[in-house]
Amino acid sequence: MTKANGEAFVQIRNLRKDFPIRIGMFSHVRLRAVDDISFDIPKGATMGLVGESGCGKTTAGRCLLRLIEPTSGEIRMGEHNLTDLKSEQVAQMRGRMQMVFQDPGGSLTPRMTIGAILREPLDLHTNLNAHEKDQRVRQLLSQVGLQPDHLTRYPHQFSGGQQQRIGVARAIATHPDFIVLDEPTSALDVSVRGQILRLLTQLQEEMGLTYLFISHDLSVIKHTCNQVAVMYLGRIVEIGSTEDIFGSPAHPYTQALLSAVPIPDPAQRGKERLKLPGEVPSPIDLPPGCRLYSRCPYRRDACLEPGPPLLQVGESHKAACILVDENVRLGGGNTPAALSQLA
Ligand code: SF4
């Protein structure tokens, strides 16, 4: 994990993304995939965005880079308000903000050689001459641990781990400031995941990169991120430092996510665990108030009121649960047992 300075470099405020969903021949309903999320990422830091499949984390990541248009909200990167930029201006900024995709094979054009794939962003976003581009492409291969003779090969001639190294090389080609890493290791064999994570950390240190790391894998998030935001059905339900989220999770959903992680240490296996019953509700038929209501063992009538907002748990630790507010005021711990005392 890279140390970061505290100044916000990426700032997200009240970001929303709606998709129209067609129902029958003539009517539509609105699916709110991302609902009013806000967070900051300091320069050189990694923010983890974690949650189950379908919680809106990938949609949020794509909105941040304006690969898809947000419905409302503000996205700032350094001195730029990205939401104010026209599409031509966003295209000019593209070299400064990049994405590494989950499926490395699918994200590389199969008919292009690796040399052509790495040269493409240099053609689009830099003024380098042909010789400088050749030098940069060779430097990129070396930076990600590949060999010069790989330049003339095609994506299918590489393993999944090597394909992801090529994806990373393409993302850093134009010296970006900010990269969204969308499940960058989840399609890889366990044996190569650590290598890719070490490569990403090394490049972050060398280049001062700021990352948004999207993952459903809590162990990866724990070892790579400075801060973590937990999403459920489009909303951030808890946000804090990695120590806060993993050491004293305050929201029942975060506690349930952590409870589902296998515990390798036999001495720790007796620890209290929280399981949520039932299924995740349909995102086009959401419950009023807290979205965890139908599955939460601590629910009460007040949870059906609009909200709850993110409430302060610690200095930079917030959770969207009314019991957390009561618990903090009463000076209790954030364990499931402490919360159940309040329920
Ligand atoms: S607000 Fe209520 S339903 Fe939601 S997580 Fe807290 S206790 Fe559970």
UniProtKB/TrEMBL annotation:
Q: Per the UniProt entry, what are the Gene Ontology biological process annotations, in alphabetical order?
A: peptide transport; transmembrane transport
Enumerate the spans annotated as ABC transporter domain.
Answer: 10-258
The cross-references to CDD domains, in alphabetical order and at most eight, read: ABC_NikE_OppD_transporters
The UniProt keywords, alphabetically, are: ATP-binding, Nucleotide-binding, Transport
Entry's InterPro entries?
AAA+_ATPase, ABC_transp_ATP-bind, ABC_transporter-like_ATP-bd, ABC_transporter-like_CS, Oligopep_ABC_C, P-loop_NTPase
Lineage, top-rank taxon, reads Bacteria
Gene Ontology molecular functions: ATP binding; ATP hydrolysis activity
Cited SMART domains: AAA (SM00382)
Family, as annotated: Belongs to the ABC transporter superfamily.
- The protein's name is ATP-binding cassette domain-containing protein
